[in-house]
Design a protein that fits this description.
Elements lengths: L4 E4 L9 H14 L8 H7 L5 H12 L6 H17 L9 H10 L3 E5 L4 H12 L3 H4 L2 E3 L12 H10 L6 E5 L2 H9 L3 E4 L14 E2 L10 H10 L1
Parallel strand pairs: 1-2, 1-4, 2-3, 4-5, 5-6
GO molecular function, one term: hydrolase activity
Protein name: Haloacid dehalogenase superfamily protein
Pfam families: Hydrolase
Length: 229
């Protein structure tokens, strides 16, 4: 059965953003004179903790370092991330734009349920679509709007509430184990396209795809493209 809505994760699902996030963290650390540098290996480990502020706190707990204000440091990192995306260069993952276009043309609603903040969603939409988030997605539920971030189900439950749909009428699209746990906890079926930082994770209870190209999709979603033709 074709769902009534598709709910997308952002980082790693819409685009391979995590390297850009890592760049923004490291440039912010340097600008603040902290002397920290997150390697790819360190960042892969830190990604097990969802949320940028939470990731910084995990690093502090690991290293024994301190900062006066984690929220202020993270806000500076967010500003730097937005600045990087304003220069362009970030591209959507294969099949994403076409799937969203086909969904809209077929009358499906499209939403976001993400651990990242709303400014980061807006920056990605401007970079990749040249439009504000509300022009791309019917609903945006962001991590700074819920009490608990992924793998808790809160942000997916918020997206479903705003869509006015039960979980049985929507489909989640994710790239990470924490995302799968979040979506499944909200009662959603899940499609996973692993990203460069999540390859090899366990995705129990989800259908794993190599990409979101229409020929790689399950039959119910491939039908969106037929309906559009």
């Amino acid at each position: 059965m074709t769902p009534a809505a598709l709910i997308f994760d952002v980082d790693g699902t819409l685009a391979e953003t995590e390297e850009t996030h890592r760049q923004a963290f490291n440039e912010t650390f340097a600008a603040e004179g902290l002397g920290w540098h997150w390697t790819r290996e360190a960042y892969r480990r830190l990604l097990r903790t969802t949320g940028g502020k939470e990731r910084i706190r995990a690093w502090l707990a690991e290293t024994g370092e301190t900062v006066p204000d984690v929220a202020a440091l993270h806000a500076a990192k967010t500003r730097r991330y937005v600045q990087i995306l304003q220069t362009g260069g970030l591209r959507l993952r294969e099949g994403v734009a076409e799937l969203i276009d086909a969904a809209r043309a077929s009358g499906l609603r499209v939403a976001v349920a993400t651990t990242t903040s709303r400014p980061n969603v807006e920056a990605l939409c401007q970079c990749c679509w040249g439009s504000p988030g509300d022009a791309v997605f019917d609903v945006i539920a962001a991590g700074d709007e819920v009490a608990a971030k992924k793998p808790a189900p809160d942000v997916y439950l918020l997206a479903l509430h705003r869509l006015g749909l039960p979980a049985s009428n929507a489909l989640a699209l994710e790239d990470s184990r924490n995302g799968v746990l979040s979506a499944r906890g909200a009662g959603l079926e899940v499609l996973v396209t692993p990203s460069v930082y999540t390859e090899g994770e366990a995705f129990d209870g989800a259908l794993v795809l190599g990409s979101l190209r229409h020929d790689a999709l399950p039959e119910g979603l491939r039908g969106l493209f037929s309906a559009r033709a």
